């Protein structure tokens, strides 16, 4: 389970920093949700302001730590059987859609890499990769149905992931420049965890820029803000 804590401070940043210190981690490893900003009237204007935030350790961090503690190796036999299952499924699936598709499946570092190409690849990618992600989940379920270990399936269609990653990195740089110029934070459109990670990673080394996520899935958004030092 993900570790979740509630942190308080006089400002949002102060509350976040306190929470990060308690979790002994960085912003890139948590999801942040502002829970409460205490409203004050004219009569209690001298009272201290209280901001509450919820910090949740990202699943990727939890899974990475768990894998270090208990890792079950996948056998070559399991990988070969998984590859065979995928070949049968993908061949039948694509033939029902359009027999012009071409695909390749290979085993790499105990993972299975699937690439699909074709003139109608857009139908398998969907809006911002939603269909691709759903199909990748299905393929992962198929290969892990009756094995004790865990096999990861990485699906790419017409190099969509590379194109999307490049577009998101360019967006991150462009928006960060606007934030610095106008000295105002900008909230991006909703993105999935994979896409948010690309934005966070691209901007993590910019000392005058900070990013965090707000909202609930599937509408979580990244906020890009200037750090005044």
In short:
Helix content is 43%, strand content 24%.
CATH architecture identity of the largest domain: 2-Layer Sandwich
Order of helices and strands: EHEEHHEEHHEHEHEE
Looking at CATH, the homologous superfamily of the largest domain is K homology (KH) domain
Low-confidence stretches: 39-47
Would you tell me the structural class of the helices and strands? alpha+beta
Write the layout of secondary structure elements.
Blueprint (H helix, E strand, L loop, with lengths): L3 E6 L2 H12 L6 E8 L13 E7 L1 H11 L6 H22 L4 E7 L2 E7 L3 H5 L4 H14 L8 E6 L2 H23 L3 E2 L5 H11 L5 E6 L6 E6 L3
Helix pairs in contact: 6-7
Describe the structure using short key phrases.
229 residues; alpha+beta; Dodecin subunit-like; GMP Synthetase, Chain A, domain 3; Ribosomal Protein S8, Chain: A, domain 1; 3 domains; three-stranded antiparallel β-sheet; 7 helices; 9 strands; elongated
Structure write-up:
The structure is a single chain. The chain has 229 residues and is an alpha+beta fold. It has 3 domains: 1-71, 2-Layer Sandwich (Dodecin subunit-like); 78-157, 2-Layer Sandwich (GMP Synthetase, Chain A, domain 3), CATH 3.30.300.20; 159-229, R3H-like domain (Ribosomal Protein S8, Chain: A, domain 1, 2-Layer Sandwich), CATH 3.30.1370.50. Helices cover 43% and strands 24% of the residues. A hairpin with a 2-residue loop joins strand 4 (102-108) and strand 5 (111-117). The model is unreliable at 39-47 (pLDDT under 50).
